Amino acid sequence: MEFLKTCVLRRNACTAAYLWRSKIAQRPSVRKISTTSPKSTVMPAWVIDKYGKNEVLRFTQNMMIPIIHYPNEVIIKVHAASVNPIDVNMRSGYGATALNMKRDPLHIKTKGEEFPLTLGRDVSGVVMECGLDVKYFKPGDEVWAAVPPWKQGTFSEFVVVSGNEVSHKPKSLTHTQAASLPYVALTAWSAINKVGGLNDKNCTGKRFEKNVCGEQTGLD
Predict the structure, then answer these.
(1) Which one, out of 8, 42, 163, 199, has a CA that is 20 to 30 A from the CA of 31?
(2) If you average pLDDT over residues 18-43, what whole number do you get?
(3) Model pTM?
(4) Residues 83-131: pLDDT tens digits?
(5) What's the total number of domains in the chain?
(6) Is residue 81 assigned to a domain?
(7) How far apart are CA 89 and CA 192, in angstroms?
(8) What would the 3-class secondary structure string for 151-218 be?
(9) Is residue 173 part of a domain?
(10) 87: domain range?
């Protein structure tokens, strides 16, 4: 009799354990869902959707935030930008064919895929993110840069540039002052260095002279 009771108790215990395990196995898994707001993927910017006059300029809040594609790139949060004659000319379509060849040398994209196009070459701002190969800058650094005309420009909240296109902003300049200098300064330097042939080894005591027509006549 005791033997039968023992068997019944063990059987009941095994049945209870099996049912408990079955309930555990059938219980749906719970995924932890973060309630933190996701990072925004869009930003405000001035863009053009076609070439033309001032009426083609459009302000949008939905321009995609640029991302780092190459390890030598940095993302800058724009604090100030400036307008150069090249921006006005690019708005009208100046150099569009040549710039599109630079953007797409293999001619993979169809015509018009450069739009929406953000103008602006000068920028002064703060580094937000750096590529893995960037050694001279870190997030939080105040920098200035001149962005090449085949890249998306600086009339936006963020812009991505290569590390060799950016340098630390002089501490003596505000962001507004700094943003007025890079492109025009590089244009002047290019004229002096590339056209005039001046460099740090041969420029002592030399200067440009121009005739009444504005033509360069040589160096003295």
Answers:
(1) 42
(2) 51
(3) 0.74
(4) 999 999 999 999 999 999 998 888 787 777 899 999 999 999 999 999 9
(5) 1
(6) yes
(7) 23
(8) CCCCCECEEEEEHHHEEECCCCCCHHHHHCCHHHHHHHHHHHHHHCCCCCCCCCCCCEEECCCCCEEE
(9) yes
(10) 42-193
